[in-house]
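Whether sequence alone determines local backbone shape is best considered at the level of individual chains. In the encoding step, the backbone of a single protein was reduced to a row of integers, each denoting a local shape. For completeness, the protein is quoted in full, as a sequence line and a line of structure tokens.
***
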Amino acid sequence: MPLPRWIAVGAPAVLVSLSLLSGPLTGPAETEVRAEGTITTGSAPSPALGEEIAYNVYVPAGYERGADRHPVLYLLHGRGDTMQAWTRVKTVLDDMIAAKRIPPVIAVMPDAPWSERGSWYVDSRYTGDGSPGRPVETALTRDLVAHVDATYRTAPIRQARLVGGYSMGGAGALRFALAHQDLFGAAAVLSPAVYTPLPPSDSSARDHGAFGDGEDTFADGVYRDLNYPALLPELDPDLPVRLFVAVGDDEYANRDPADARHDLDFESAALYNAARRSPAISAQLRVLDGGHDWTVWTPAFEQAMADLGPGLSVTPPAGLPAPLHGTEGTDWAGGVAAHADGSLTIGYAAGGPVNGQEHQGRLDAVVTRAGGWTRQFGTEADERLYGVAALPDGGVLAAGYTKGDLDGKHAGNAADDAFVARLDAAGDIRWITQFGAPDAADRLYGLTAAPDGGAYVTGYTRGALDGPNQGDKDAILARLTPAGELSWVRQYGGPGEDKAYGVAVSGSALHVTGSATAAMPGTTPLGGLDAWIAAYTADGARTWAATAGGAGDDRFTAVAVTTTGLAVATGASDGDALTVAYTGRGKQRWTHTLATPSADEGAAVAALPGGEVEVVGYTRGLAGVQAGGADVLTLRLDARGGQLAAAQFGTARDDAVDPFAEANLYAMATPSGQVAVTGLTYGAVGDAPGNGDVFLATVDPATGLPG
């Protein structure tokens, strides 16, 4: 019989460890010895129980010599088992930590001997003879957690705690995660013995008093009150729970056809499908080959840790600053401008009155000088802003689209028209220019100020503004004079649907970015939706164009020109955040991709000193400390496209992205060297209702987080 790889003796302060090589050295080269964690035993006082809670604890390699804090796993065993059951995952933890698949974690494995080891990890109301129920849930979630935080180098925040379990322990882990959202941010629920609406007649959940009441060992009402269907409607979406459910495909099959609904593979699927519909839960389900044993639970635990482990953090997520801008209705972000005096102006679309101003109807355009004035304007139809730009005199330009008669010269208009407005430093509207093809949709999605105080705008048209339309939609680029006169319009498109989203000016050169479903003139189609960039002269002559991405769906949503003269475009390529730099002649200088297992997209680029850029977008994955849902993503890239920093921040709900999975986010470098970011959030910040409001944050490029 081989010697054990580790031996545990005594209380947490007593560590006895043996590390054995897997075989003899066979040559002059040294065999690398993998660093291993250590398991010891301990006990926690429990006022709730009036006795000690025994546990095993795994600490990662180097814990004794370090000073760092660590996330904690709480691992619950199944009915009839002991705290020794979970020690078999030590090798999994050692391997995953060594490979940096998960951070170094502490794992606490409590013993649950109560109710003849069928406690189901709940506070029992059973008072019958023999084995009366105990307040197990209170003891483990209150007393044990407090003891662990006081004894080990942990972080007492929910983002640093994961609860897991198998069988009865899986039911307990689910219960703890849903009933104690303030404690746990994630749960690994393996072959959970959860039954709805009630356990089958042969379930041991009925036998030991865990769900009893008084002299009755089982009470239907108690079970229903404690089970997950009663918890799901009460969950707080601002305390998101990440849930990983796994089960074997060879689970015990109930012999009674009436109880087939209670086979655990069926119950696990039912749990997953109920949980994934909760706004407070992000859920995963895996069905593995095997039955109700460790042939399933060991690989399932590894998969759960691979999914949930990287999201554990001893640092709480960075949030959004208050106050938010908007109304009780639906609001959308519409741009940010940074002025020479350090002030900021944001634009947005509002579904109600702002600061006591009159709401014209549906969505109005709103321009707000932070800490100063607000100007709301619109028609009875929709107005959306998609950009604001600072002017040297302290005024701003704003651009977007209207479905009404915004300038007083388009009576009866029923289609989307492009518009540009100029406001002075006091917020008074100097002029509004509305234009477009009659009875065809025209929208503006990008704006930049021209050197003379005029504007360059970009978007799309379904009509013919500069020759015949080449397809479903054509991209447009237009020039307006400082007085608001439409100087020229250029239409650019192929046989498909073409849109332009971003525009930047540098000297006499213009750069425009967008997406196309088919070949654009002067480009090579790559397949799917293509990201494209085109360069123009100041008088609207196209000089070059290029596509980027791959065979999937790609788009460029924004562009900026660096201090070294590169045009840097950002967007998405097949679900990853793609940023590409081009020379003045259209040659790719560098490419950067940020890829997580979830959706990522760049939405704005801010030019920084020394040729660096700050890319701002959104991620549903992990680029820093995850707040929940879609987060604001920040990437600092050097002049060669090397990644200097990556971070994310936001609320527990979706930020920077709209319900149609499109980014709603803008950014602009400020004179102080920071980056102003504005976007849509569905989170509750301060007194905001959390139904879709607009945030404004100032980000430090060194950290990528709000300062």
